[in-house]
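Limitations
The structure tokens in this dataset are predictions for the assembled complex, not deposited experimental models. Users should treat interface geometry with appropriate caution, especially where small molecules or nucleic acid strands are included. An illustrative entry is reproduced here so readers can see what is and is not provided.
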Amino acid sequence: MGSYILRRVLQVIPVFFGATLLIYYMVFAMPGDPIAALFGDRAPNPALLEALRAQYHLDEPFVVQYFYYIVGVFQLDFGTSFSGQPVIDVLQRTFPVTLRLAVMAIVLSFLLAILIGLFSAIFKGKLFDQLSLIVSLVFVSVPVFVICFLAQYFFGVQLGWFSPTVGSDNGWLGLTLPAITLAVGIYATSMRLTRSSTIETLGQDWVRTAYSKGLSRRRVIPVHVLRNSLIPMVTDTATTFGILMVGATVTEGIFNVPGVGNTLYQAILRHEAPTVVSFVTVFVIAYVFVNLLVDLLYGLLDPRIRYVK
Amino acid sequence: MKKKAGIALGVLTAGALALTGCAPDGGSGNSGGTETEFGIAYNADGGHAAWADAVANSISSTLGITAIGEPYPDFAGLREEVTNRTIDTAFRTGWQADYPGLYNFLGPLYATNAGSNDGDYSNEEFDALLAEGAAETDLDAANALFQQAQEILLEDLPVIPLWYSNVVGGYSENVENVEFDWHSVAVFDQITKADGSVVTANGSEPQNPLIPTNTNETGGGKILDAIFAGLVKYDTDGSAVNDVAESITVDSPTQLTVKIRPGLTFSNGEEVTSDNFIKAWNYGALASNEQLSSYFFEDIEGFSYDEDSELTGLVEVDPHTFTITLNKPAADFAQRLGYSAYFPLPDVAFDDIAAFGENPIGNGPYKLAAEGAWQHDVQIDLAVNETYDGPRTAQNSGLQIVFYATQDAAYADLLANQLDVLDAIPDSAFETYEDELGDRSVNQPAAIFQSFTIPESLEHFEGEEGILRRQAISMSIDRQQITDVIFQGTRTPASDFTSPVIDGWSDSLAGAEYLEYNPERAAELWAEANEISAWE
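Predicted assembly:
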């Protein structure tokens, strides 16, 4: 087990270099001169343009630029944005916000999906099941931005239950409305996954055996059926969590959440390589660790797929 | 000019277009055998697709040629091709004035070899009139010369004027006395709020540290204008009024004398003297400081882009008087002095300019509420500066500028009365905002001129043939219909190259008829051009 974890952690190293190199190259290859764009429609003086390019090493070949960046990273200097802020500060400011939003959305969606998915499976074909399937179909087919705009308009503007935007009020409570809309977006898939895997589990021989042994439903369903039905849900939730950590750009934009999605989008528009690469690198590393966590969780849920040496 | 911050209009496409990095295909060059196309390039991240296509359609249907909008993925990509002169189509251009003067719309854009003359236009007669106007110390006489110069532009059409952008804004039920000034920002100091709380306004995260000479975009500019006071300030009609200055005398077209009102202080108690201006301007001009707005000092004697040099044209006479000597006549220099690049800096700024950019200390009607009042990507809190003495004394208890990533989010807050003042209603609400806000909505012309440039080097657009074709294209665009249908009346069709909010503007210049929709005349002119050289 220990060596397995170690090996997985070591995998981060090639992934780190691969991802940074690739992303750095992509930002480098984007058409357009970011420094000239800083001046808007006004053409800057050539001498000033050159001086600014040199300041950000933009006049150097790609490999040299990348080298400067990597050397910086090993000194915990992730570079500075064009606005002169250390990228590490931007990371520290935006990640907690996105993390809170992602955790709230995941927990909300996970709990609802398990509860409703489980009951849908038990009452398969009944009215409850039919209704929950229709609702999830609606949720999965309506685009996220429509849900966001509707929620913002009705609960924010019309009813005034929530502030329409988040802004400085980005603690757990302030993020409630965007978290709910995000949860709605991801709920449908999770719920259907729980339902189908529970139906499959319910048909297993050992479930019949458990009942025939005289175990009550209240013991069979939560302890035996639920535990075995959770495996696909764990994978799904981990993947979704990874996606949410990258920042729900659309949701963050609509609700003005100062998270990574918004910041990264602005940085891409400005061709700010240090910011873009640092953000993406953190995403990649976070993703690797979430996946590792999932693999370890598998073992807890199902001893048969526990990693053997 | 101040460029608009990168407000993401593209919420729906967010991310999707960003990393694709694909350049649009070849453009309108003569691709062997097929018919010549007339392309209008625009950046797809700026919400320009609808009007570019409408303008192209208008040209196509009037002249019977193929005109198309050519999207570029982003602003930087488009600007690079424009700057390197590799673009082989017409391309969108716009100009927001730095100060309310006619010259600011003409000199930097159309004078031979001027910095932003992206189409390489050159006309000796135009240059001569412009220089004559710049050397004229009487403002009205200068404006008359600038208007004569504009009449040459109307004939030659180096760019095709389209429309003036309006400031489209609104305010909440909680505030009164909201007025928008000539450069599209609310006059914050005169806003009153019944409940006595802080006025909230929309903004965007400043893209640079808050240093006046290094701020060239509206996000930072809005904050700087609130926390600093310049020698002059602009009234809502664009006229310059003394603020810190007691008097500004134009001694000759190259010499000004500035007198500062004694007894004014920065919010840290330091007195505002000649020295604060001279040091700040020298800092902004010094080549090695790489300030984005250094070009504002290029007319002052001693300025150099290439090496560090002192602005020898700035001379202190006494603590409250200094003289400005220019290296070429610029009679409107006094008019420029309300722009943020000319703000004074306290001595403490030069001890650690980076720290100062994070927590600036100014002499304006507002000041930062506390150390660290600038919460990046979120908002900045400003308190009333009690030591300010001048024409902009705040009538409210403070100002909170909230940074929005999208205008739609800001608009939702305005509707919920969570935001007091919004100066940019999103395009998506153009149809409904007047109903939703009633008499709390604002729609008035601003100092923003929109056009597309047809470079002189473009085939068929040189010399006599080029002038005929430019006139034909201009007269084949139904500006009124496009501004009504696509912009819901939030743009005003252009009748010159400047803006209605500028002192000296006129809608009846000779040649203004070239900017009116006239399909018959357009077709005739196009046919005349075809006699010189066939389009195909």
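Some entries come with short summary sentences. For this one: Chain A touches chain B through 60 residues (CB under 8 Å).
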